[in-house]
Amino acid sequence: MKNVVREIASLVIGMTGIVLLGIGLNGVLDIGSCASGGPYAVTRPCPEGSGALFWLSMTGAIMWIVGIVVSRRAFFQPGAGQVLWTAGFAGGGTALLVKVLTQPSMPPDAKLGASIVIALCIPMGLVVGIVGIVQLVRRSRAGSGSRRTEDGARTNDPQRRGRSAARTAATRGRGRP
């Protein structure tokens, strides 16, 4: 699969997953804690259709992970994987933060759970996003000077031109090429 097609497929699958996950979590946070079935006394039964929110969230999470995996570089190098990781964690955490701050009717248990998720997700997303930006800046700076091959060696490196580094160092001060 060509890299561009792979990255586009990664973004489409991953962003669709993030949207589904967000819709599902939004519905779950509106409900708060509830229970259905089992041998225990249920003080707050789950409303109809709450099981679908679970499956919607799970499907979204799986699609998001698949989107990251489909990306050629996952989240180790700049590309669709890092964008999806950052959008999922930092973007999702920010959306939860907005929901917690602007929805006074949110149940207290849902606010507590969302606050814990916010405290974990936003830093997880931002760290990978910042690392990706630093990698892009370093790559652009390295591109303006000497270039590197895939194995990391510089193209103007003496070893790449057929001479050993020791021989080059020994002949530098003597006027020999």
Question: What is the topology?
Answer:
Elements: H1 3-31, H2 50-70, H3 80-102, H4 108-144, H5 165-171
Helix pairs in contact: 1-2, 1-3, 2-3, 3-4
What does this structure look like?
With 177 residues, the protein is mainly α. 66% of the residues lie in helices and 0% in strands. The protein contains 5 helices and no strands.
Alpha-beta content class:
mainly alpha
Give me the strand/helix succession: HHHHH
Oligomer classification: single chain
Tell me the major beta sheet.
Answer: none
User: What percent of the residues sit in helical stretches (DSSP H or I)?
Assistant: 55-70%
- Average pLDDT over all residues: 82
Number of strands: 0
Q: Total number of helical segments?
A: 5
> What is the strand content?
under 5%
Describe the structure using short key phrases.
177 residues; elongated; mainly alpha; 5 helices
In short:
This protein is mainly α and 177 residues long. The protein has helices at 3-31, 50-70, 80-102, 108-144, 165-171.
